[in-house]
Amino acid sequence: MTLSKDALALIAEINKKHGEGAVMAGSDLVLPSRFTTGSLGIDVILGGGWPANQWVEVIGKESQGKTAIVLKTIAANQKLNPDFTTLWIASEHFDTDQAEALGVDLSRVVVVPTQDMEFAFETILMFAESRTVDCIVLDSYPALIPGEEADKTMEDAVVAVGARLTGKFFRKAGSAMKRGPEERPILGIFINQFRDQIGGFSPHGNPQTTPGGNAKNYAFYTRVQVKRDEYIDEARKGKGKTRVGQVIKVETIKHKAGPPRQVATVRFFFRDAPVLGFSRGDYDTVEEIMTYGVLYNVIRRGGAYYKYGDNKWGPGREKLLDELRANEALVAEIREKVLEISAQPDHVTFAESNDE
After folding, report:
1. Which end of the chain is more exposed for a tag (fewer CB within 10 A), N or C?
2. pTM value?
3. Which residue intervals of the chain are DSSP H helices?
4. Which CATH superfamily is domain 30-225 in?
């Protein structure tokens, strides 16, 4: 059933008064593109990557990998798009050495070092409305200081000022993030930290909350929790073991485009690992692609052997890994097929049996 002539006439009248696109049929809405995270597993649980033209929140405790996930996102999108630029609100120290190690081109990052909450929010809105950047990052929210709090002494109590300002910011940020089908999309990322919720209750241990009030939780399209799963140690001949990385676990707490509580892990190296073959700032993307390739039956497993098209490897997963590490084109092909299958609403989440 199509819209009636009267409804179409009313839509045309409203659009004439308020601008084209103020009102439209649902069938005319264009799904925005997605921004890769640089990790296949994280892209899969997000439905293909971070949602465009929306705000997302990356949450976790200290030293769990939050900033690393965001920097890897920027590096991956800079690699795909030579015009990709970022506004980084640095309420905490912006480590240029770490950013470059993770692959970020600093010449395409605008850094605003400030803890002034009002100035930070105003700057974000100005850049979002200007359509001059592709990504906006706030690192991190808890370090921002509202002007009213800054003017008080240490003895003066200030309650919920930041939360009220944040709620106001998101009410204004909605229109600033709107993009038409022909405009370059944008991604907004807030990095936040968990705090113990004093007086709260949780059946799963200590209750936790995030600074900024509850209003922001409704504004975020996606919220993910970042947590260190385990460390990665490298055995070096005659020198014992050296800690070179960690497995980062990412879980969707809120995801309006898909099911919540989806989990992905990625191996991240915060130090050079010459024996394992990785440099500081690397993800082990090949092992990740192999794992998801098998999971979605893109790579077929029969006993100790693996097949993809006319290729067959084995025995053992190490033979497959070695072959994939030597063939970037094949890895990219498998990655695209995994994303294509995982995006289908009726896809099989995991293969019950790959044996042939």
Report:
1. N
2. 0.88
3. 5-18, 40-45, 66-80, 96-101, 117-130, 147-150, 161-176, 215-219, 285-295, 317-325, 328-342
4. P-loop containing nucleotide triphosphate hydrolases (3.40.50.300)
